[in-house]
Amino acid sequence: MNKIFALIIFILFMIDRLNGLSFNDQYIHSGIRWNDTDGNSIQAHATGILIDPQDGSYWWYGESLKTPTLSDHGVNCYHSKDLLNWVNIGQVLSQQQVHVKGREGPYVIERPRVVYNHKTKLYVMWFHLDSSTYSYRCVGIATSPSPNATFTFIDGLQLGGIPSLDMSLYEDKRNGTVNGVYLIRSYNNEYVVISKLTDDYLNTTGITSTIGEPREAYSIFHRNNRYYMMTSHLTGWPPNPADLLISDRDSLDGAKWTSLGNPTGSPTTFNSQATFVLPFPSTKYPGTYFYIYMGDRWVYPDLLNASYVWLPYTFYSDTNITLEWKDQWGLTDY
Prior knowledge:
The structure is a single chain. This protein is mainly beta. The protein has one domain (2-333): 5 Propeller (Tachylectin-2, Chain A), CATH 2.115.10.20. Helices cover 5% and strands 46% of the residues. The protein has 1 helix and 22 strands. A hairpin with a 3-residue loop joins strand 11 (177-187) and strand 12.
């Protein structure tokens, strides 16, 4: 009887692995499909996480279901209080909301990032806005009075006349104080431009730093008076070895960047591409944070089955950093 019971448990476990991450699982599993609290596959690719300024919960914004056509593409939103159980809020920016004069849709909408502006009391979304042939090379901006409401499209433009491809936002927040929000973007896949946003988060104030090599999938975080940026090389959908950069100063203004190499040791970064790094409160060392790598595992051309890779960084020193593969791990382990 015990053997039969054990076999049933094993079969149920394997079904769960095949069908996706169960919403009541207390561990993070990488490289398999994740389900929301309704049991449906989470579709929020090129992840951007917003920590709610009111209650500290999490809003996950990402690219919607990667269907072969663009007509239903947009930005999906999910909400969680524990980073494990995700409630599907739905699409908060759709093709119908986007209208750019002289640039017809449907549009490519990629890398959505949302930050809260304490002065205007608006949630501001930035994203890569493009044509199906990637000829527009714009950034898109939208706002909303609530993190889970439909966003109102503001503009699609080339800031400073610079054609933009891959992009990200970084909120430089320390001890509860926001020191600025920065846009990181690719100039025509030739080099990387970092610009500080204006006070209303609807424009930039000029270039503060550059990286003289083409990179994409920018994910910045701050630790011990230095900034780090997880990036990838440009190989299209196929994965490549990640490149972790470190700044030379405790400021993004005029920062110069040095490569620390690939912290994963994997030539494909565990078959993933970086999209975000989230500081998370440590259980083992109260008052400190550990850092979670968030990546996409693209399954080209079957992008409908793209999944996610979330892993904790290990810091042996400020410049000796690794990212090790774990089939499963718990947030309370760190």
